[in-house]
Design a protein that fits this description.
The chain has 255 residues and is of the alpha+beta class. The protein folds into two domains: 103 residues, Alpha-Beta Plaits (2-Layer Sandwich); 135 residues, Pseudouridine synthase I, catalytic domain, C-terminal subdomain (Alpha-Beta Plaits), CATH 3.30.70. It has five helices and nine strands. Helix 3 packs across helix 4. The chain starts with a strand and ends with a strand.
Amino acid sequence: MAHTQRFFIEIAFNGTPYHGWQAQPNAVAVQEVLDKALSTIFRQAIETVGCGRTDTGVHARQLFAHLNVEEKDYGAWTMDHGQNIVRSINALLPHDIAAKRLIPVHAEAHARFDATERSYEYHIHFEKDPFLYNFSWQLRDMPDMGLMNEAAQILMEYTDFSCFSKSNTQVKTNNCKITRAEWVEQDGKLVFYITADRFLRNMVRAIVGTLMMVGKKEIAPEGVREIIKSKNRSNAGTSVPAFGLYLTAIKYPYL
């Protein structure tokens, strides 16, 4: 008798050629390409549900999605079984999307709603480098990292981040709990690390744009408080380019 097994699939992708994760009618998205490969491998229509959405050009080192597969008999699931299926999936995926793991989970497991923590990085460099094109934002002058970190710490004192959210989004709440917000210098480059239980659309890029205002001494670190309290997107900084942003980690209580 056929039964349905739910899986989580872990993938990574170069977001440059894609209009984000979420499938859409008039543009190629990562989800569409992945679903097509999975449908071929499992010989049935597969529709994944992702852990969230990424904007056009944003990259992911780790993204999870769940899928349901109808199968007559799986027998005992083994690690080798999963690795063989992953190899088959990767043979069908383009070079800029890679499947990492296929994990059997319980029937109610949900890639989006069960995630307890998400982490992003934003990368900035200052010298022309052809190998960083579309993977890091090039600036001419180094901003004041000390001031930016002072402002970044203020983010963790608040939960309502309406000021950093894209307008007209259909979410029930703009509350998020940020547990890490930190700039680190690495080999003459800057990386912004941020972790929260959830993120709003465009939130990280708006935060980085606002912190850059602090780093350029256009506003003081304390000015970030007034921006957050205003709950007004027009008071925050401009969204920085998508290609410097990476989704890097998703955590679940059962993985």
